[in-house]
Structure formats: structure tokens, C-alpha cells
Predict the structure.
Amino acid sequence: MKDILMLDSLFSSEELMIRDSVRRFVNEVAEPLLAPANEAAHFPKELIAQMASLGIFGMRLPESVGGSNASAYSYGLVCQELERGDSALRSFSSVQSSLCMYPIFRFGSEEQQQKWLPRMAKGEVIGCFGLTEPDSGSDPSSMKTHAKRSNNGWVLNGAKMWITNAPIAQLALIWAHTSDGIRGFLVETDRKGIICSEMKHKFSLRASSTGEISLNDCWIPDENLLPGTEKGLSCALSCLNQARFGIAWGVIGAAESCFDTASNYLAERNQFAKPLASYQLIQKDLVDIYNEIIKAKCLNIQLGRLMNTGDATPEMISLAKMNNCREALRIARMARNLMGANGISIEYPVMRHVVNLESVFTYEGTDNIHHLILGKYLTGIDAFN
Amino acid sequence: MKVLVAIKRVIDYHTKIRVKADGSGVETRNVKMAMNPFDEIALEAAIRLKEAGQASEVIVVSCGTSECQETLRAGLAMGADRAILIETSEELQPLAVAKLLNAVVNKESPQLVFLGKQAIDDDANQTGQMLAGLLNWAQGTFASNIIINNDKIEVEREVDGGLEKVSLKLPAIVTADLRLNEPRFPSLPNIMKAKQKPLEVISASSLNIDIKPRLTVLKIESPPIRKQGVKVNTINELFNKLHVTEKVL
């Protein structure tokens, strides 16, 4: 896609190099596996080792725990390039980095960090994040999962649902009520009393592994409690902020993929003896798509700048997640329409992006919830209660 | 054994090339640039020698404007140990580059110099050969496989009739063909580390080498747009089209 506003000039040469390296990995290695993985509804696990060797898991964390101290821009650009391939790839990486490694780093003890983070950076341990439950989605404080003190440890009971990576994870970060409020616990998935089963029959994010977690008198030792989570639910929500920032960048990668695919198609496909791209109605749609992508990128860049300086607030991240998911989904649908019947073919990534973005629009805070967060920001009135 | 790898900054191969309106060249403003893909293969070969313990140091060198530093950093991110830029804003043709590289070889005394077989912008396919000539070294061009054997390097070359194996006495020049290897993607930690690696800038004018272009470019133009083809139903119709209509048979 043409860089009309020369936005690349706002990134450092290292950031551009990181973006290009991941873009090549996605184009040359991942892309051929993605459509078949989507069709067969399985996560292409063979990509984990290569993603790890690129150094993208936990890239924002310090080198002492296996990270690279990378900038917010670098992280955003990596998400953008992964999702240009498929939202499933970006989801995998978001969960590993933002929802598992980040909380272990932020809320974990020194021992927990050294035990898990270097192996997670190498992709040897896969993590998942258990917050959502069958009856608890947008209102996470209504969760039923609870932990009770017992035998120098805790006993967990409850169920989690829609958990990305759960069926392939070795480590689950489980959020549960305790007598002192909600806390985060590290639960190894080979423990007695925890079962992670795959949720099949999805129309969307088919190349992502999604699971249910059931906890039946699952005992874990004291040292598995994340000690820094004493502030309860707000700790879980702070992880979501990291992930939502990545989503705001990621969906624009998917939108760009749709734009590139559609614009190539429109230049080559002739109807009424002229390329489709020569028609006014078509050009209007193409320009509208391009315009929204450029605007979303500007939004991401300013938000990334504020993330780098530590000035980003949850409201800002909600704004970007809300806008970019909505526009990416609209763009994907428009691109599908521009390509006519071929838009639904598995030969092109466009329909895959359409159905994936339906999920991304909903997860990590629905569109409505982000509106309410911003509504509260503007009016000072909390519409949740 | 020190290994020198020459790399060139070219327009990224994914980019659609646009010719400047006045026909003086191709548009490079606001165009994505990258390392010449054949040079990337050459560099990968050198890094693999180092990883196998057969090379002690890998040095990347490029000739051109200060923007080539970016390309050299990409080489350092792949795994080269240090970089040298011979800086000039003059137009450089293959003979000039070969002469500048000759000066670097004399300074660094590598046992092996890797280059891509050609650059994808001018497709000259001359620099490696000219450098071998200037140094009076053995050369193995179009390499698709290499094996270091004591003081020799065995090079499998892609030639018109198939593959040719040559054994070269070191020091030698090797130019990389497409099938020599598949270059790695630089990892994030290596990209960050590349910032710290040494990059020496030498002004081309300080070397007192005649780098004046020997050739004058008269005009650059886009290839003619291909005419739409037609489908034929029979051999006779095909023959008729080729012989009578197009007059190519």
C-alpha cells in the first residue's frame, strides 16, 4: 500500500527492520499454511518455533527475562504484520506476550519470572489467559470461579470459556474470586483437576485454538499465586490494555491485506472491456478504504507515542480498539464486495479476514463496552451500573 | 578466516518500478529500498561459515550514499560482525565498485569475498568478475553450493548446461546464485544488537581511485505494455496467426 503521508518516516530504522522481517516471515513462511489451517480448523503449531526465533514473544520485556526491550511501535508493527497474515497468528502472539508474559512480569515474583518468562519467550511454554466464563463476558467481576485456601495452597473451582490457546497451553493464568477479592493464579495445565478442551465448530478465527477450561478441586501451591494482583480485577484489565493496543495495530494489517488484494484484483479484472479499477464507483470505494486505513494508522502512531512515554490511558486505547476494529471489519466487507463472487473464494484472504474480524470486533471489549468507557470519559457518568 | 561480503542497496523487489517522466532513470524518492536479494544470499552463506566455525569474522561492505548505512545495519542484524561504508554520492558503475572493493580487500585481507551474482537494479553481473580480475584471484560465479576444504573452496556453479564443479585456491571470489541458500529473517534481538556493532565510514574520495562512469545512460523507459493474447482452437489457426498475421514464423 502506498504511504501517502510518509508515515514510515515516523519510525526508526530498527522499527522498520523489525516490521519488514516479520512481514517476510508472514509472506514467505506463514501465508502458505494459513488458508489450509483455516479450512482444517487447526492452529499451525509449526510456526511457534519460528515466531520465537524471530524474538517476538515478550518483546517489550527487558532482556533479563528473555525480551528485547522493544518500543511500543515495534510491538504494534509486529501485530500489524502478523494479522496481515491472519488474526489467529496475532491472537496467538497477543495472548502469549500481552496476556501471559506481561502479567507474570508485572505481577509475578522474581522466581515466577525466572521460571516462566525465558521459556515462554522461546515458545517452549505456551500460555493462556482465563478471564471470560460461560456466564461472565463483558462483566468479568461476575465470574464464578473461586479459589479457597487449603494445605499451603489454593483449591480452584469453576469454568472458563472462549480461551485462546487453552488447548495447546502448558500454563493457564486463571483469574478467580478469593475471600479478599479477585486474584491471578498460575496453573500448569498438567495438574490434577484442570481440563482444557478444544471448542470446535467456529465460523471465525478457525486457525486459532480456542478452548474451555474446567477446574474441579484443582490444587496449586502458594507460590502459584501472582503476588502483585492484590488490586484484583484492575490487574486483569491492565493486561487487556496491552493486548488491545496490539489489536488496534493488528486489525489494520488485516485491512491492508484486504485493500492490497482488492486493488490488485480490480486492476486486472476487466468488465465491459475496461479494468474494474477504471470505474468511478469502484474508485470511490477504494479511496474510502485507503482513507480509513491511513487515519487508523495515524491514530495508532500517536497512541504508540504515548505508550512509549507512559502517558497512554485506557480510554485512549479503547478509542483505538473501537475505531480500528470497526473500520477494519467494514473495510474487509467492502473489499469482499469489490471482488464480487471471487471475494468469497479461499484463493484470496479477504473472506477469511471478514469472518476473523467479526470475532476481533467482539473480543477484548466489545464495541459497545468501548463506547461506554468513552461515554463515561466524556460525561463523567458511569453507564455500566 | 576473514570473510568480506559486498552488499548493494536497491529498490525493494516487491515495489512496482516507475520510470521518471524525463527518462533519466527510475523513481527512488519515497520508494522502499532493501538489500539486493542475491547479496542477502551471499551474506547468509558467509554467516553460515562463521556458525560452522569455518570463518572467524564476517564484514559487510557497501559503496554509495550515507543511506547505505541502513542496508549495512540490516546486514549486521542478519549476523555480520562489522560494516564498512565507502561513501560517495557519485554514480557508481560496476568497475568503480570493483575498484573500491579492491581497496577494501587490500586493507582487510580477507580470504574470501562473497558477492551476489548480480544486482536486481542494473542486472550488470560484472562486479564480482571485475574484482577477481583486479585482485588476480580465482573466481567461482553463480554458486549454488560451496564447501571449504582446507586452503580450497569447492564451488558448484549453475551454468547453462547444468552444474559445474570448480575447486578454487583461497583467497577467492564467490558470487551467489539463487539456490545457494534461503536467507534468514533477522530476529528482533539481533536487530537491536546491530545498533551496537561497529560501522566504519570511509570517504571514497580519500582513496584516490578513479570512479568516473565509463558508460553514459541515454534514456530509461518502461518495457512496452504487453498486448492482450488470443485463444486459438486448432494447430492450423495457430500456424496461420504466427506465419501470416504476426509474421514470426
Remarks:
- The CA atoms of residues 46 and 289 of chain A lie 34 Å apart.
- Chain A touches chain B through 23 residues (CB under 8 Å).
